[in-house]
Amino acid sequence: MKCMLGLFLVLFSGTSLVAARTLTINNPVRRVSLFPEGTSVLVDPGIYLNSDGGIIQTVLCKLGGFKSGDLIAVTTANASPNLSSTYTQSYDAVTGILSITDPNPTSGEGASGATWEALLRTLRFYPATGNLSQNNVRTVEYEVLESGSYYAHPDGTYHFYDFISSAGITWPDAKPAAVSQLWYGKVGYLGTITSSDEFTFMAGQAPGTSGWLAGCDSMSGSLGGTDGGTYALSAATDTLSEGYWKWDAGPEAGQLFWTANTHAAGTHSDKTGTTAPGRYSNWPGNQPDNSGEEDALQITSAGAFNDLPVDYGIVAGYFVEWGGMSELATVVTIKIQNRNALKHSAGF
Ligand SMILES: [Ca+2]
Ligand SMILES: [Ca+2]
Ligand SMILES: [Ca+2]
Q1: What is the largest CA-CA distance in the chain?
Q2: Residues 33, 341: contact at Cβ < 8 Å?
Q3: What is the 224 CA–ligand 2 centroid distance (Å)?
Q4: How do residues 167-191 score in pLDDT, each as one tens digit?
Q5: Distance in Å, CA 247 to ligand 1 centroid
Q6: Each residue of 42-78: pLDDT tens digit?
Q7: CA 198 to ligand 1 centroid distance, Å
Q8: Ligand whose nearest atom lies closest to the CA of 286
C-alpha cells in the first residue's frame, strides 16, 4: 500500500516578545512521501531561528495528536551541529514531548543560535507503523527556553521573568507598565515573590540592579487579612495599612506577606515583624524602615527587600512576571495531516 502524507505547516506567532528567540517555519506547506511504511521525514529542514534573545538552554518539541508508536527526534544525519557533542534529548512516549537540552548553555555551544538552528533542522518525524492511513492530525510545537528565563513554580505552572530597564520609573508607573509587557501574548504583572527559590530567580534577572516589586503597604480595603486592598496613595489609607505589606499584582494580589510587630496607627517603626504563614519576605535587619514615608517594595542592588517612597526616582527599572501558564510558551505549530484525509475534511 502506498501512503502519502502531506505536511501542512501553520504558524501561530506571539506578539511583543520580550528578549525571546523565535522560530520561523521555512516552508508553510509541503508534501512528502512516507512510502514505504516506516519512512521518516524531516519536519522542517529549513526552520529559521532568529539571532535575538538570550542563551538557549532547552528546546521542547511537542508532538500533538500523536498515535502510540509515533516518535520525533533530532539526528545529525543531515547536519553537523557542534551541539551534537553536548546536547541531550529525551522523548516521552506518553506525552509526545521531546526535550533537547544543552547541559552547559552558558559556556557551551548553546550560545550559538546557528548551532541550535542546525540541530533543529534535523528534527525528524517517525510515524507509528500502521497509522499512516488514519484520519488524524499531528502537530509539532516548538518551545524555545532561554537560560534563566523560566521557573517551574510550586503552583504547578511555569512562570517567566524579566527585568525591564527604566531608569527613574516610579512604583505607580511600574505597576501598569508591567501589565503592558507581553510574553507570547500573555499579560505580565509586577513581580511577586512567594519563596526563596523564586526570589533567587527573580533577582537573577538583573544581578546588582535595583527594581520594583509588587509589594506595598499603602493599601485600601481590609487590614491585615489575607485578601483585599489595592494601592491607594492617601494619608488616611496609609495610616491604617502602614506595616501591613501585601502583594498588589498577579495571582497573589491582596495577599499579606509581612506584618510589623510594632504596628499601630501612625507608627512607622516597623523594622521588626512577622512573615505571614506560608508567605515569603527577605528584609535585611534594618528594613523596612519607612524612612520618611516608604510604601513600595524594591529589590536592592545588594539583593534584598527594601521599602522606598513610591515616587523614588533612582530605581533602575522593574521586575515583570508572567505566571499561571499551564504550558510553556508556544512558538510554532506544525500540522502534519494525512493527505487522504483532505478529501474528507469534515472529519476534522
Ligand atoms: Ca510570583
Ligand atoms: Ca510604609
Ligand atoms: Ca527603606
Answers
A1: 84
A2: no
A3: 14
A4: 999 999 999 999 998 876 678 999 9
A5: 10
A6: 888 888 887 666 677 788 888 877 788 889 999 864 4
A7: 7
A8: 3
Q: Which ligand is nearest to the CA of 243?
A: 2
Give residue 279 CA to ligand 2 midpoint distance, Å: 19
User: CB 17: neighbour CB atoms within 10 A?
Assistant: 18
Q: How far is CA 34 from the centre of its chain?
A: 36
Is the domain spanning 158-325 CATH 3.10.100.10? The answer is yes
Residue 295 Cα to ligand 2 middle (Å): 4
Residue 68 CA, distance from chain mean position: 30
**pLDDT-based confidence at residue 223 (cuts at 50, 70, 90):** low
Which numbered ligand comes closest to the C-alpha of 245? 2
Q: 177, 102, 139: which is closest to 330 by C-alpha?
A: 139
Phi/psi at 70 (nearest 5 deg)? -60, 155
Residue ranges of domains in the chain: 4-148+328-347, 158-325
Q: How far apart are the first and last CA of the chain?
A: 24
pLDDT of residue 343: 36
**pLDDT-above-70 percentage for the chain:** 66
- Say which residues have a Cβ less than 8 Å from residue 140's Cβ, sequence separation at least 6: 43, 61, 62, 63, 64, 72, 123, 125, 332, 333, 334, 336
pLDDT at 158 over 60: yes
Q: What's the whole-model pTM score?
A: 0.63
Q: Return the ligand number nearest the Cα of 191.
A: 1
Distance CA 291, CA 312 (A): 12
- Euclidean distance between CA atoms 243 and 240, whole angstroms: 9
Distance CA 73, CA 97 (A): 10
What residues have their beta carbon closer than 5 A to ion ligand 3? 287, 289, 294, 306-307
